[in-house]
Design a protein that fits this description.
By secondary structure, the protein is α/β, with parallel strands linked by helices. The protein has helices spanning 4-35, 37-42, 46-51, 53-71, 78-91, 97-113, 119-146, 233-241, 275-288, 309-317, 360-372, 391-395, and strands at residues 153-164, 167-174, 188-194, 200-206, 216-221, 247-250, 266-271, 294-300, 322-328, 337-338, 353-357, 380-383. The protein is globular and about 65 Å long. It starts with a helix and ends with a helix.
Length: 396
C-alpha cells in the first residue's frame, strides 16, 4: 500500500488538497476536454458535467481514497473501488486512458497549488493516484474476463410499455439471435445512443426482470431539467425516438448492488425510479420461494407516478412473509401512507439485510432509521443513479 514517506506527505498535505479539490477537478476537466474533446462528446455524461455532479464525484473519490489510505495503511477501500470499477466497465474504460487522466489531473494540481507542489508532494500524490488507478485496472480486467460479452452488442426493441406519464419500459432481444448472457438481480446495462448533434452518449439503466429472462428489460424515466440541471439527453431521446423495431447498443450487465443468495430477512427500500433494481430482486425472490421476512418500502410523489407499481405489488404478494409500506406525498388514501418515509411502525426483523436505491437524501434518511432500529451498518447496501456523491462516506 502507500509507502511510509508518501503517507506522511499525503497526511500533511491532505487538508490543502482537500480544500482545493473542487477547483482542481474543475481545471482538470477543462484541460482534459480541451485535449480530448471526443471524451466529452462520446464518453462522459454531458449532463453531469454541466451540473457539476461528475466533478464532485471525482473530487470525493480522490479525497476519500487518500484519506482511507493514510487512516488504514494496510487496507484499501474495496467497496468504493468495486463501485467505480463496475461503472467503468459498463462504459468500456481501458487501461490506456488512465495515463491521460494522470497527465491532466496533475497539471491541474500544479496550477492550483503552485509552489506548494514540491517534488516530494508530487511524488506522494502520484503514488496515491497509481495505487487507485492500478487497483481499478485490475478489478476492471477481472470484470471484463468474467463477462460473456466484450464491447457493445446490438439489441432490437421488441416491446415498449408506457408505465407512467414519464417512465417507459423497453424490452429487447439480441439482433444476432444469439444467447442472452446471465446477470444478477440489481445489475444494470449501459445504453449507447447517437444524438442529433452526432455525439454518442451513454447512460446506465437497471434491469427490471429477474435473472434468466430471455430479454433485456429496463425502465427509463424522462429527466426534466431545471435552472441548474439540463434535461436528460439520453432519457429524452429514448422517450421521443425509440419504438418497437429500433436497435440500441447495450453493454454487458454490471453493478455491485446485487441480491445475495441468502435466507436472511430482507428490506428493499426505493424512491422514484430507484424502484427498478428492486423489481428484479423481488421477482427473483418470488421465483426462488424466499421464506424469510421481506419488507418492501417505496416512496413516491403519488401512486400515479409510482413506476412499475403493479409489479411491485404483485411480486411482493407472491412472497409468504412480505410486507409493503408505500409512502406518497399526494393522493395516498387507499394506496399507501401519506408523507415521507417513516419506519417507526414498520417491523424490521433482526438480522435484516437492506438494499436501498433512490435520491441521496432518501437513502440517508432510511439508513439512519434502519440503524436506529438495530440494522448493522454493514448490512445496508445501496445504489446511486449517476455520479456517486456518497463515495467518501462509503470509504470512511
Amino acid at each position: 500500500m502507500l509507502s511510509e514517506q508518501s503517507a506522511a506527505t499525503v497526511r500533511a498535505t491532505l487538508p490543502a488538497v482537500g480544500a482545493a479539490i473542487g477547483e482542481i477537478t474543475e481545471r482538470f476537466y477543462a484541460k482534459l476536454f480541451e485535449a480530448h474533446p471526443e471524451l466529452l462528446r462520446d464518453l462522459f455524461n454531458r449532463g453531469n458535467q454541466a451540473s457539476g455532479a461528475q466533478k464532485q464525484a471525482l473530487a470525493g473519490s480522490i479525497a476519500g481514497f487518500a484519506t482511507y489510505l493514510v487512516n488504514n495503511p494496510d487496507q484499501r477501500p474495496d467497496v468504493m473501488l468495486q463501485r467505480i470499477a463496475h461503472k467503468h466497465a459498463s462504459l468500456g474504460i481501458v487501461p490506456e486512458q488512465y495515463p491521460i487522466v494522470h497527465e491532466h489531473l496533475f497539471a491541474a494540481i500544479a496550477e492550483v497549488l503552485g509552489d506548494a507542489v514540491t517534488e516530494e508532494v508530487a511524488a506522494a500524490w502520484t503514488e496515491v493516484y497509481w495505487l487507485m488507478a492500478n487497483a481499478l485496472i485490475a478489478i476492471e480486467k477481472r470484470l471484463y474476463a468474467q463477462s460473456e460479452q466484450t464491447g457493445w452488442r446490438e439489441w432490437k426493441v421488441v416491446e415498449r410499455v408506457e408505465e407512467t406519464a414519464d417512465v417507459a419500459t423497453f424490452k429487447l432481444r439480441p439482433v444476432d439471435d444469439g444467447a442472452v448472457p446471465g446477470y444478477r438481480a440489481g445489475q444494470y446495462v449501459s445504453v449507447g445512443v447517437t444524438l442529433a448533434d452526432g455525439a454518442r452518449q451513454i447512460r446506465q439503466y437497471s434491469l427490471t426482470a429477474a435473472p434468466g429472462s430471455p430479454e433485456r428489460q429496463f425502465a427509463v424515466k424522462r429527466v426534466t431539467g431545471d435552472a441548474t440541471t439540463p434535461d436528460g439527453e439520453v432519457s429524452n431521446h429514448l422517450h421521443a425516438h425509440v419504438r418497437e423495431g429500433d436497435v440500441l447498443q447495450l453493454s454487458a450487465p454490471y453493478g455491485d448492488l446485487v441480491l445475495e443468495d441468502t435466507d436472511a430477512p430482507l428490506l428493499l427500500a426505493s424512491a422514484g425510479i430507484g424502484v427498478t433494481p428492486m423489481i428484479a430482486m423481488l421477482e427473483q425472490l418470488a421465483l426462488a420461494g424466499h421464506s424469510a421476512p421481506v419488507t418492501v418500502v417505496h416512496a413516491d410523489r403519488s401512486p400515479a407516478s409510482h413506476a412499475l407499481r403493479t409489479d411491485h405489488v404483485a411480486y411482493a404478494a407472491k412472497l409468504p412473509r412480505a410486507e409493503t409500506a408505500f409512502f406518497y406525498e399526494q393522493d395516498a388514501e387507499g394506496y399507501g401512507r401519506p408523507g415521507l418515509v417513516d419506519l417507526a411502525d414498520v417491523e424490521v426483523a433482526p438480522g435484516t439485510q437492506a438494499y436501498l436505491c433512490g435520491p441521496l437524501p432518501f437513502m440517508r434518511a432510511v439508513r439512519e432509521q434502519l440503524i436506529a432500529k438495530g440494522v448493522a451498518p454493514a448490512g445496508i447496501h445501496y445504489e446511486v443513479f449517476g455520479p456517486d456523491l456518497w463515495l467518501v462516506q462509503a470509504a470512511a
